[in-house]
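Structure representation:
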Amino acid sequence: MAFLLFLKISHSATCACLSNRQEYPSFFRTIPSDVYQSTALAKLVKHFGWTWVGAVRSNSDYGNDGMAVFLEAATKEGVCVEYSVAVDRTNLKMDYLEVVDVIKRSTSKVIVAFADGPDLDILVKELHAQNVTGLQWVGSEGWITYRYFASEINYAVVQGAVGFAATNAHIPGLKEFLANSRPSTTPGNQGLVKLWETLFRCTFPPQTNMNVKDHVAACSGKETLWDVNTQFTDVSDASLMNNVYKATYAVAHALEMLFSWCSLMSLVTQWHAMHSLTGRKIKRGMCSLKPLVTTMLLDHKVSSL
């Protein structure tokens, strides 16, 4: 990505490694760097007096970088880490069994897990199978709010877990927009067509005339998403959607400012857009740019504030 210098704004990439402006000069994000979360986790552990802990991480940039910052912050807070192990959903079961064995042999009763949901899910289910419960879990946002992680089996292992999550938000009109969506009003949206056929157990032409079993009815087009419960219209957790929303508007406002202040748009480059995005005043060619004022700020260190 270092060689792709076009402007990029991520709604979910939290790795602290992306804050390196030498390697990623055109990268921005609308979610905080994990430096903040890792430091906060260390302070949280210290706040509760848990000074002897174990550490589990995903074997990825997200987990490795996040845990590295946590370990450094924990040392400064006077928190000792008994062990630090990595998990990966692509690992063999034997690898997970080794991690379980480390946890079983440890004396610490608190586990700080900087991992994503799928990686940790496998470990927790193996811990449940071996009746390893009663531990206090402290989690990163990668799994602490992962909806598929919330099962009865996992609850028996991680009940009482505490951690941090991305800030939730209410996006006016989003629920209504999604619930009013129809294949007929969004032509070419094959994802919505598939969702429609699955939810209402019907099919759209030309599938209706092509080897479809008799018991599969044709979609009438009068079905409505208001009548069903589906994750497609569930906006109870709009944290990542809100980050996409902010990223989109940040770019839109930056471009609007450029169009307002540049007399020759042929002189506008990606660097103008980047300076505009961060609210920094520049002069180049025929353009004189004023600072962008928004309620959401992207700073030059690539950390969303």
About this structure: The radius of gyration is 24 Å. The first strand starts at residue 8 and ends at 10. Residues 57 and 64 are 7 Å apart (CA to CA).
